[in-house]
Design goal:
Elements (H helix, E strand, L loop, with lengths): L2 E8 L2 E8 L9 E5 L7 H11 L4 E5 L22 H14 L2 H17 L8 E6 L1 H12 L4 E7 L8 H4 L5 E7 L5 H13 L4 E6 L16 H18 L4
Parallel strand pairs: 3-4, 3-5, 5-6, 6-7, 7-8
Antiparallel strand pairs: 1-2, 2-4
Helix pairs in contact: 3-4
């Protein structure tokens, strides 16, 4: 299963990225995978390879490329509680600078790149994301309802743009929330907004998880949460995208 390092031209420069895809010479449906705030690193490559093994072309961009190429932070092999304050102090200014306008310009570039790849099948695609990347995935689906047929986000602030953002989405959706991120009342409010937008969705709290539960290189990692993530993500893609 090859991994290819890439440079994607955008309106604001060159975004470094990588793609994982089957080495069978065939064309496969595309999945745009936004990483969490810690960015591209070995665990993201592992997750992209796992997804590619199910028959997808998986593109993972450095969403903070305006501030430099990957790696932007000196990340330890395992991100523990003692590492988070210093890393968050570096990360938060980048998140705050990444406006919705930047997100949409980048999404245009990523989707145009995917449309031109010989390894990518014609037709709809999917977006998925983790933490802040889940918000970017949601914004991408709202901006490109004609292109995005499936949206998944995990431990992500998906409601940050308000209910009007959901009204523009046509994709089938799965939102997997950390138990530490969303109260039962907040989950009910979010799901009411999804109902009001008449979306095809599942939105659930993964019990006994904390923010970042999918990331195996952090102390937030929950193996059962990651397993459930794959159990929700893969059927969503199989249902929404052309056969891979």
């Amino acid at each position: 299963m090859p991994i290819e390092d890439l440079q994607i031209p955008t309106a604001d420069g060159q975004a470094d990225a990588f793609a994982a895809f089957p080495a069978d010479g065939e064309r496969h449906p595309a999945v745009l995978m936004y990483p969490d705030g810690f960015g591209i690193r070995p665990v993201l490559r592992d997750m992209a390879l796992e997804l590619a093994g199910h028959g997808y072309y998986v593109l993972v961009p450095n969403m903070f490329y305006r501030h430099g190429p990957t790696p932007l932070f000196d990340l330890p092999a395992h991100i523990g509680a003692e590492d988070r304050p210093g890393l968050m102090a570096q990360m938060m200014p980048l998140i705050q600078a990444h406006t919705p306008e930047r997100t949409l310009r980048d999404a245009d570039a990523y989707l145009a790149f995917l449309a031109d790849r010989p390894e990518v099948a014609a037709g709809p695609m999917a977006v998925t994301g983790y933490c802040f990347g889940g918000l970017l995935a949601t914004r991408t689906a709202a901006a490109h309802p004609d292109r995005v047929a499936a949206l998944a986000a995990f431990h992500a602030p998906v409601a940050a743009d308000g209910p009007e953002a959901f009204e523009r989405i046509t994709a089938a959706i799965h939102f997997g929330h950390a138990a530490s991120d969303l109260s039962p009342e907040a989950l009910r409010d979010l799901n009411r907004e999804l109902d009001a937008a008449k979306l095809d969705y599942t939105s659930e709290v993964y019990h006994e998880t904390i923010h970042g539960f999918t990331m195996a290189d952090t102390d937030a990692f929950d193996p059962e949460g990651l397993r459930r993530h794959w159990e929700r993500l893969l059927p969503l893609l199989e249902r929404a995208l052309p056969s891979s």
